[in-house]
């Protein structure tokens, strides 16, 4: 097995990667995001790990962080298992589609470009939206909108409505199913849990109750990343087990801390900080497109 951490500084790099895992674990507990949206680009930027290996390994680490976070939120009744099961079904289908796309893009030599491009577009747009909402909340201009949040008109027009009692919804299961498919594809391609998309979508598209969004998002992420990890291990073979182990050491502990802090810190300030981190990463990856890389070619075993 090839190890992508520089051997000369393995101990130092290992400690920093454990710290990175702890940071993503805290984000998982606080926001219901798997943390892969942060782990993958940071592994690429600071450690020079190939995007394919970073994405595959990060999805494995997200599974560990999600287990810890789901257990903590389940104790507080913060998980809508029925809606979560629908999004998981969509996520499993999306993971299969994403695996086919991953293998195709890798075969034509474009997977690294696609992964980086997706990060720039998604992180940039979502970070900007989160930043705007956080600023509005801090100024007190978005309070009324948050209290009166409803699901999107497109969701209301879909047929076959079900009741999701814990989320306070009466909507078609097609909406969370389609959302799960999209998140599954992104999980396979980008090594993310999809929470940074799933949480805003649950709030502003599905109109879910805020007290179950984080736990339900983590419930979905848990099962989708398990399947994604298995697909990567069996098909792409891009999972670095040493890297995953170091990330898991920090992320499991960090998720518990994040869950405890979530009830103590003002959410608008947390969203502002997270939005700033997301935008900085998106800008850094975008700048990377315009400068010459340290290594023109990336070689790893097939």
TrEMBL record:
The name this protein goes by in its record: Probable membrane transporter protein
InterPro entries from the UniProt entry: TM_pro_TauE-like, TSUP/Inactive_protease-like
Family to which this protein belongs: Belongs to the 4-toluene sulfonate uptake permease (TSUP) (TC 2.A.102) family.
Transmembrane parts of this sequence: 12-38, 44-71, 83-105, 111-131, 169-197, 203-226, 238-257, 269-287
Keyword hit for Repeat: no
Primary localization class, coarse: membrane
Localization per record: Cell membrane; Membrane
Membrane topology: Multi-pass membrane protein
Alphabetically ordered keywords of this record: Cell membrane, Membrane, Transmembrane, Transmembrane helix
Species of the source: Qipengyuania spongiae
Keyword Repeat found: no
């Amino acid at each position: 097995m090839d190890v992508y951490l520089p051997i000369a500084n393995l101990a130092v790099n290992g400690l920093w990667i454990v710290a990175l895992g702890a940071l993503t674990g805290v984000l998982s507990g606080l926001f219901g995001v798997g943390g892969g949206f942060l782990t993958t680009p940071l592994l690429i930027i600071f450690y020079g790990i190939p995007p394919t290996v970073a994405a595959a390994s990060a999805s494995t680490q997200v599974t560990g962080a999600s287990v810890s976070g789901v257990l903590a939120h389940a104790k507080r009744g913060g998980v809508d298992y029925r809606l979560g099961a629908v999004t998981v079904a969509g996520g499993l289908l999306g993971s299969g589609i994403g695996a086919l796309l991953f293998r195709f893009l890798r075969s034509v030599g474009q997977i690294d470009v696609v992964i980086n491009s997706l990060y720039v577009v998604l992180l940039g747009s979502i970070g900007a939206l989160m930043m705007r909402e956080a600023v509005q909340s801090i100024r007190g201009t978005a309070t009324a909108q948050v209290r009166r949040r409803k699901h999107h008109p497109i969701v209301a027009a879909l047929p076959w409505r079900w009741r999701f009692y814990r989320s306070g919804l009466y909507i078609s299961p097609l909406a969370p199913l389609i959302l799960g498919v999209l998140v599954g594809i992104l999980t396979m391609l980008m090594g993310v849990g999809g929470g940074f998309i799933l949480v805003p979508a649950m709030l502003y598209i599905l109109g879910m109750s805020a007290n179950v969004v984080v736990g339900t998002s983590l419930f979905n992420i848990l099962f989708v990343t398990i399947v994604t990890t298995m697909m990567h291990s069996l098909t792409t073979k891009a999972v670095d087990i040493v890297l995953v182990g170091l990330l898991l050491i920090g992320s499991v502990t960090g998720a518990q801390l994040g869950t405890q802090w979530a009830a103590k810190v003002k959410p608008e300030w947390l969203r502002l900080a997270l939005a700033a981190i997301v935008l900085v990463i998106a800008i850094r990856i975008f700048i990377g497109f315009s400068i010459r890389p340290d290594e023109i070619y990336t070689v790893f075993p097939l």
